[in-house]
Task: structure prediction
Amino acid sequence: MQLILEKRGDRSEFFALASPFLALFLTLIVGGLIFASRGISPLEGLYVYFVEPLTQIWSLEQLVVKATPLILIGVGLAVCYMANVWNIGAEGQLTIGAIVGSMAPVLFPTWQDPSVLVVMLIMGTVGGALYGLIPGLLKTRFNANEILTSLMLVYVAQFILDWLVRGPWRDPKGFNFPVTQTFEGWQLLPTFGGTIHLGALFAVLACVALAFLMAKTLKGFEIKVTGNAPRAGRFAGFSRDRMVLFCFLLSGGLAGLAGICEVASVVGKLQPQISPGYGFAAIIVAFLGRLNPVGVLFAGLLLALSYIGGEAAQVSLGISDKIAKVVQGILLFFILSCDTLILYRIKIQFKGVGTLKAVG
Amino acid sequence: MDQFLAVALTIITAATPLLIAAIGELVVERSGVLNLGVEGMMVMGAIAGFAIALTTGSTMLGIGAAILAGMGMSLLFGFLTLTLVANQVASGLALTLLGLGLSGLIGESFVGQPGLKLPTLYGIDGLVPVSLFLTAAVAYVLFKTKTGLVIRAVGNSHNSAHALGYRVIALRYLCVMFGGGCAGLAGAYLSLAYTPQWIENMTAGRGWIALALVVFASWRPWRTLVGAYLFGAVSILGFVVQAMGLGIPSQFLSALPYLVTIVALVIISGNKRLTRANTPACLAQSFVPDR
Result:
């Protein structure tokens, strides 16, 4: 038996829309199998993981709160990957954004008016953008692989954060815990009543703005051409180098904004661990959203559900919340597999029997 | 003299997992495939080796399990990128994310358990000679045999190799599996020799450093060996400086290997003569045969 790919004449619009859902469906099946292997009824497991969190106001709020950084980062990465620029160091840009943005409240703890929040947000965004610019510049100047350099910088950023909260920025009244002082008042993002904070609005705005950029502007066209047909892009006079720098500034800035929004809301201070891997999960968000800003909005909510479902599974089913990372990994696998159906028909050939049409 | 020997031994210990993983990835990339999932395969090798060694009491079985785990992961990657022609960069990332998640879940019950340690020869872990043998074998096969010539041909022009009748996809599957086995073995070295215990994410970016090493070595086996020992020396340098008590924060010394990786990449990648001549021309390009 052999799988054979046959190129379609045109890309399949049907599968372009259906492949994320197909991937989700396959992930649910494998998720059910994982539950079964742990002695839990698959249906009960899937219900607790994927449905129950959607039935309570409290967990719906959590869903939006967790989706906020995922969408902010994911939408920037979507544009990057569309242009064939591989920033996988968003976790590091998030960390540096959080650090730089936190300079205001940590160094001037008594600064208490709306301006401190504005300064924090701007500095966080700029910090993330500049940290993202490093692999961008190394790529354009020295041709250094941006995948590897941006990832290495994640570790470096985490060590910087670790040093700051254990060293110079440690709260003197913090009983020697590795934390800065807790942010309060105007050092925190305003919320919409409950736990949903202003960052959610930024996330939606970022998606709308980038959807407009991609669909209606020359820059959006340039991004798509550079990514899909680099040679055509060169003939059109689009500079590959400028595109790399633009993508890193944009995605780094959004990751930095996500970082400062996290510490100015959910976390409320700097500590060694400020993100449960949002920068990496956002890679999945970008692909699940089909690299489309509006798609990212929904994909971010789904990935947030995978985090919350993991916590729910730990509480009600007694299995580790580490299952969340497994579900996320499997999901990305299936997304990438199902995307093949957009450009190809898959045929299954049995030896000696001839060709049998299978899918599409 | 004894002190010098001790430092040399620690450098070798730190370099060996990098070398094993990088040699495997070198073969994969020479065949034209970029598998960014080394970190994920390595960490799966680490947990599989640790778990099997602990439950069976045999480090040999542990090593075997680690190699199989790495190969299994690489087959997933192969199916995605070779059969379904998915984007290799994205698929490699998927492999890493999946490996880190899965190993964390499997390893949860093994956290804090004392592990088994590989037997040593004159203070050197048994896998050190294996890593040297692997380097020599890969150098010989790639550059002195017909098999190696075909692998490099497939990596440089899959269309020509296909036209000449070579089975591009099958050969790439084999190379990808070799790379997976090496990554798994490198992981087992971490959990059975370097620090015989299981810690979540214990590979700590070594899979990525191995990927950088392949670029640093400009896809040459013996240069990979030199590079791995240089990196080993740098990571040990941190401990040495710390022991001297210069008051440099430990976090900066821990960040050193990652910074050095970046610097090394910059130096090598800027050198067009080294990179252009050796980079496999079809690296990370999907191949769909015309029928």
Remarks:
- Chain B touches chain A at residues 36, 76, 80, 83-87, 89-91, 93-94, 97-102, 104-105, 108, 204-205, 208, 211-212, 215, 249, 251-252, 254-255, 258-259, 261-262, 265-266, 269-270, 275, 288, 291 (CB under 8 Å).
- The longest strand of chain B covers residues 120-121.
- The beta strands of chain B are 120-121, 124-125.
